[in-house]
Amino acid sequence: MDQGTGTRAGRHLAGHSRGALLWAALAAPAVSVDRLGLNEPRSAGQQLAGITVLAAAVTLRRSHPLPAFLLAATLGLATAPSLFTLAYGPALAVLALLLGRRADRARTALIGFGGIAVAGTVKIAVRDVDPTVEWAVLMATLVFGAVFPWLTGRYWRQGRELAAAGWARADQLEREQRIVADRARLRERARIAQDMHDSLGHELSLIAVRAGALQVAPDLPDPHREAAADLRAAASQATDRLHTIIGLLREEGDEQAPLAPAGESIDALVARAKESGLRITYADERDHPEAQARAQTEAQRDPARRELIDGTVHRVVQEALTNAAKHAPGAHVTVTLTRDGPATTVTVTNGRSGGEGSHASPSPAGGGSGLHALRTRVTDLDGTLSAGPHGDGFRVTARLPDRGVAPRPAAPRLTEARRRTALAFGAAVAAGALLVGGTFAWYAYTRTHSVLDPADYARLRVGDPRADVERVLPDRTVADPPLERAPTPPPRGADCAYYRSSGELFTSVAHFRLCFGGNDGEARLVDKVVIPTAQDQDHHNHHNRERVR
């Protein structure tokens, strides 16, 4: 036998052992309550049938939990119409708990509860008992002995499923972490590629601008002019080749990591571009004391974000100047930095190529890789970037807020749901407690107010007028007398009433039967009988059998 077969056999044996222990635990109350005198005694055959049905229910508890629960409920209804029995109550609660733990669908369980309520109600209706008390006990037993254990089982099962889902989620997070690490490597490669594209592309554009300035110099000899033209063409070709190579390194869809400024301020960047021949008007309107104070406050509050904003502003200006030098050589460029409330705005506008009188060459309308990367980076900082034609030229505008958009606080749905569930459960418990308390109070009232003192019963004589007898009778009569234990049938045509001999609850007590009748117009006591308890009747029957022997 291999290890797998042995393991399955061990689990099978353990399951049988647990089933046997559970059956023994559920059968113990069914046998012991009769011996302790806590309910009406049953015959040995009835007890054997009960524990046999319990064995069948325990066997079905795993594969068919609903039929197993219904078997226990059937035992309760067969023993008492109100479902409340000390013999089978524990089995009802335990199998309801297992039903909630193992059954997938709640609808079948609710249908089973409804069927039990209907069957109990019908049985109460056809019996000559007080329906109010019996039905209230039935409902209370169904709620506390079946529905609440079933809910507990369902919560138990959900807890286990949530734990399993948590472990599955942990495994998934592990896999996602490995994916994140792989993407981080790709992002770093994209960052390096973008840095090369922006920095080297900018430098090559400036070289092309300087070569263009040499080419149009009036005092330059023709051979040097041709060399300058070749240099400008070579710089443009190098820029295009750089763009192609960077495109191979950058994978489409890679996220762009934030890049730090290339070790220079925007003032230095603009000054270097001017030295290369670009005509630039630069205005930094952030020098206002109030704007500087606000920027300093935000930098102290979140220095990392301030650094990202400064780096992004530098990259916007660098990309816009590069595009202006490449697509609109000789055009006038205006760079403006402003603070618009709690945000920094940078605007770069270039006119027509070659000055005011020449036609502008086409500029990228936001679809280039550089502007695409800028838009992604600005959006990551909760900002906005617009790029497109402006008059006869081109404009790039980026607005970067000092603070990111705070994530909306997640609605406390889970906490609210738990609160509502707790309130509903508490309300159900309170309603059930009131139902049980009211039922018990009514039960105690009817039992204690239908007691005829044995001394008063002994003083009554057959033939006494009914009016004299009623002076010592209690307020109420017994609604469900033990007629089957009466030693003799009541006189024909007599009006009989039954009373308890003691106010003890949940125990078998002797009952008194008083029958009234008469033909002379005045009702008189015509019969009085003591109905013994079940234990006394069994003892009397046993004694009579011994005398016959």
TrEMBL record:
<dbReference type="GO" id="GO:0000155">
    <property type="term" value="F:phosphorelay sensor kinase activity"/>
</dbReference>
<keyword id="KW-0902">Two-component regulatory system</keyword>
<dbReference type="InterPro" id="IPR036890">
    <property type="entry name" value="HATPase_C_sf"/>
</dbReference>
<dbReference type="InterPro" id="IPR050482">
    <property type="entry name" value="Sensor_HK_TwoCompSys"/>
</dbReference>
<keyword id="KW-0808">Transferase</keyword>
<feature type="domain" description="Signal transduction histidine kinase subgroup 3 dimerisation and phosphoacceptor">
    <location>
        <begin position="188"/>
        <end position="252"/>
    </location>
</feature>
<dbReference type="InterPro" id="IPR003594">
    <property type="entry name" value="HATPase_dom"/>
</dbReference>
<keyword id="KW-0067">ATP-binding</keyword>
<keyword id="KW-1133">Transmembrane helix</keyword>
<keyword id="KW-0597">Phosphoprotein</keyword>
<dbReference type="GO" id="GO:0046983">
    <property type="term" value="F:protein dimerization activity"/>
</dbReference>
<dbReference type="GO" id="GO:0016020">
    <property type="term" value="C:membrane"/>
</dbReference>
<feature type="transmembrane region" description="Helical">
    <location>
        <begin position="106"/>
        <end position="126"/>
    </location>
</feature>
<keyword id="KW-0418">Kinase</keyword>
<feature type="transmembrane region" description="Helical">
    <location>
        <begin position="422"/>
        <end position="445"/>
    </location>
</feature>
<feature type="transmembrane region" description="Helical">
    <location>
        <begin position="68"/>
        <end position="99"/>
    </location>
</feature>
<keyword id="KW-0472">Membrane</keyword>
<feature type="transmembrane region" description="Helical">
    <location>
        <begin position="132"/>
        <end position="151"/>
    </location>
</feature>
<feature type="domain" description="Histidine kinase/HSP90-like ATPase">
    <location>
        <begin position="313"/>
        <end position="402"/>
    </location>
</feature>
<dbReference type="Pfam" id="PF07730">
    <property type="entry name" value="HisKA_3"/>
</dbReference>
<protein>
    <recommendedName>
        <fullName>histidine kinase</fullName>
        <ecNumber>2.7.13.3</ecNumber>
    </recommendedName>
</protein>
<dbReference type="Pfam" id="PF02518">
    <property type="entry name" value="HATPase_c"/>
</dbReference>
<keyword id="KW-0547">Nucleotide-binding</keyword>
<dbReference type="GO" id="GO:0005524">
    <property type="term" value="F:ATP binding"/>
</dbReference>
<feature type="region of interest" description="Disordered">
    <location>
        <begin position="347"/>
        <end position="372"/>
    </location>
</feature>
<keyword id="KW-0812">Transmembrane</keyword>
<dbReference type="InterPro" id="IPR011712">
    <property type="entry name" value="Sig_transdc_His_kin_sub3_dim/P"/>
</dbReference>
